[in-house]
Amino acid sequence: MNIKPFDELDITDPIMFGLVFSNKDIAQPFIEHLLDIKIDHLETPIPEAVLSYDAEHKGVRYDVFARETNENGETIRSFDLEMQMVDTKELPQRARYYQSVGDGVALSKGDFYTSLREQYIIFLCPKDIFKGGLPAYHFENRAKENTNITLNDLTFKNFYIFSKYEEFADPIVKAYMKYFATQNPDSRETETINKQVSFYKTDTFIRKRYMIYEYDFHERENEIRKEAEAKALEEKKAMAKGFRDDGFPLEAISKRTGFTIDEIKSF
Length: 267
What we know:
Layout: H1 14-21, H2 24-35, E1 46-51, E2 60-69, E3 75-83, H3 91-106, E4 118-125, E5 136-139, E6 155-161, H4 171-182, H5 188-201, H6 204-245, H7 250-257, H8 261-266
Parallel strand pairs: 3-4, 4-6
Antiparallel strand pairs: 1-2, 2-3, 5-6
């Protein structure tokens, strides 16, 4: 994975997507048009939101997490927005886990299951990972015996293939998808997004934050590389020791593994 230079970031980079869509004046109309719903009050969306059950379980990091709440601050619906540029071959399973963690965090000890509210996991992808030729895929649990019967568990997993923007019927949704695909704004909503992208690219605080992120990423890459090299070395030593213990000539082992004879004797 390569990290783009800061000046080359656009809306399809998760860090920029999170920054822009943490603005509820951008996120709310987007969600409303995408899902064809009306939101009464959207809490300020959280970019790079981290949720987890506890320290023993794998947490998740949502690109953007948002909640619709009522006048008492209680959640009515929640939304996870993911800008997913790479098909990692496990997006359906990831969507499943994202939904389960969201439910686990939302439900406090002693709460009734009826406290669970509508939850939408939304992936925005350039490629059709399902290869069905559709611009969007909306998943909910239904009975195999009669698909008119829904489980009504209030969970929805939607995938939008923005490279197929020409095939979206709603002109506003089409403009959003076209912007994700081309970075060319041609609607009031996408002009607002584009201006916000430009604003963040001139923000020195965001630039410094990104530089720290870039540094941390490369440091972590170096750590992973060193760990992999150390593991490979130990495996190579174990192989050499195994050959030695099985009576193979030390010269032959040295030639095959690159270790000196003295090193092979010491293993």
